[in-house]
Write a structure and sequence with these properties.
Elements: E1 3-6, H1 12-21, E2 36-39, E3 50-51, E4 54-58, H2 81-87, E5 100-106, H3 112-122, E6 135-139, H4 151-167, E7 172-178, H5 183-195, E8 200-203, E9 205-206, H6 213-221, E10 227-231, E11 249-258, E12 265-269, E13 276-277, E14 296-297, E15 300-303, E16 310-314, E17 321-326, H7 328-341, H8 354-357, E18 362-363, E19 393-394
Parallel strand pairs: 5-7, 5-8, 6-7, 8-10, 10-11, 11-15
Antiparallel strand pairs: 1-2, 2-4, 3-9, 4-17, 11-12, 13-14, 16-17, 18-19
């Protein structure tokens, strides 16, 4: 079921054509560094969504040798916790204690807890298990009647669990597995995560917008006092749901590289990151850009380029152990964990608005593009707000607190 495509140098217009011509979840990916990627999840059936995880299957990513992560004799390729914490100035050693980050995905990963243990041991992170109360896995109703296994979604689950661990090692993790990739089942899983006490919920999936989105908004995503993050998509310029929901933090994607400046890192627009104007969802009051009459995607961003991808461990079915992943499936759980590092939102608050009140606490992303569009900031990195990266990437946690 996995779809593979070579990532070769492609002109901007060709990239845009790929992104706009194919349905969500089916467009070829394009970047300029020659690595090959595969979509973890199959293209969605009508009425369903796909996960936004991209596995590197060939070539050598720029993040292949992150020296700061060489904490074991045979370190895997891809950025690990030390690099991600340094790049985004995260107080991971001290923050997040007592907070629970929920991961919502479709289908079951029977190896989720065991694979998480391998990742955390590799990087010297404390154990996060069912036995010590750090890890919990439930079905979409909160029970233990898990859905059938799915190798593609299992890779997504491993990516999500590993990214929460990388950014917030002290956080507890709640994995809620929906019975299928329908918006109804995934939305039910979101409600279950909130019911079970999670104040931070990451959703690394998306599908085409529809006239039903307002119904989904009120039924599943309107949770005051809960930070809900959603991947913006991996097909370049264009919008997905539920990233377009006005109740969530839509998370775009960047290419992350080391730099010789005071920060030590630099982000540019990843050309696969989703962005643009929603067709159906109203613009939230805190969003002030003028290029979209309705909701604009994204709000903030983090690393998503497979060529500057992250290390992930997964062993279910066809997986081979250590892999490198990208996609906005990586950036959404990173931002959810960053919210958790900042502490629980106050009751009744609107966490999606927090970054807009603290723009100076974000690293602005001012270069790169994800396609062509009538309003340049909607598809091009620029000073201040732009579509592909929103307000920027984390510089600590101040932008994610109320």
């Amino acid at each position: 079921m996995r779809r593979t495509v070579s990532l070769t140098t492609v002109a901007t217009l060709a990239t845009a054509a790929l992104a706009l011509a194919a349905p969500v979840g089916q467009a070829a990916q394009a970047t300029s560094h020659g690595v090959t990627v595969a979509h973890a999840c199959a293209a969605p059936a009508k009425g369903q969504v796909a996960c936004n995880a991209l596995q590197v299957t060939g070539g050598t990513p720029k993040s292949a040798h992150a020296e700061s992560d060489l904490t074991a004799a045979a370190a895997p390729s891809g950025y690990g916790p030390a690099s991600l914490q340094a790049a985004y100035n995260l107080p991971s050693a001290t923050g997040g204690s007592g907070q629970t980050v929920a991961i919502v995905d479709a289908y079951d990963d029977p190896n989720a807890e065991a694979d998480l243990a391998v990742y955390r041991a590799q990087y010297g992170l404390s154990a996060c298990t069912t036995a010590n109360g750090c890890f919990q896995k439930v079905d979409q109703s909160g029970g233990t009647k898990y859905p059938r296994g799915d190798a593609g979604w299992a890779e997504e689950i491993s990516l999500d669990l590993d990214m929460v661990s990388a950014a917030c090692p002290n956080c507890k993790i709640l994995l809620v597995e929906a019975s299928s990739a329908s918006m109804t089942n995934l939305g039910t899983a979101v409600n279950t995560a909130v019911k079970l006490g999670a104040k931070f919920v990451s959703n690394s999936y998306g599908g085409s917008e529809s006239s039903s989105d307002s119904t989904y908004d009120s039924a599943y995503f309107n949770h005051p006092g809960v930070a809900i993050t959603v991947s913006s998509g991996d097909n370049g310029y264009g919008t997905e749901y539920p990233a377009a929901s006005p109740y969530v933090t839509a998370v775009g994607g960047t290419s992350l590289s080391s730099a010789s400046d005071s920060r030590g890192w630099t982000d540019s627009v990843w050309n696969g990151a989703g962005s643009g104007c929603s067709t159906y969802s109203a613009k939230p009051s805190w969003q002030k850009d003028t290029g979209c009459a309705k909701r604009t995607v994204a709000d903030v961003s983090a690393v998503a380029d497979p060529n500057t991808g992250v290390a992930v461990y997964d062993s279910y079915r066809s997986a081979t152990g250590w892999m490198v992943f990208g996609g906005t499936s990586a950036s959404s759980p990173l931002i959810a964990a960053t919210y958790a590092l900042g502490g629980a939102p106050s009751a009744g608050s609107t966490p999606a608005s927090f970054p807009y009140a603290h723009t100076s606490a974000l690293y602005d992303v001012t270069s790169g593009s994800n396609g062509s569009c009538s309003g340049s900031y909607l598809c091009t990195g620029t000073a201040g707000y732009d579509g592909p990266t929103g307000l920027g990437v984390p510089n600590g946690t101040a932008a994610f607190t109320g």
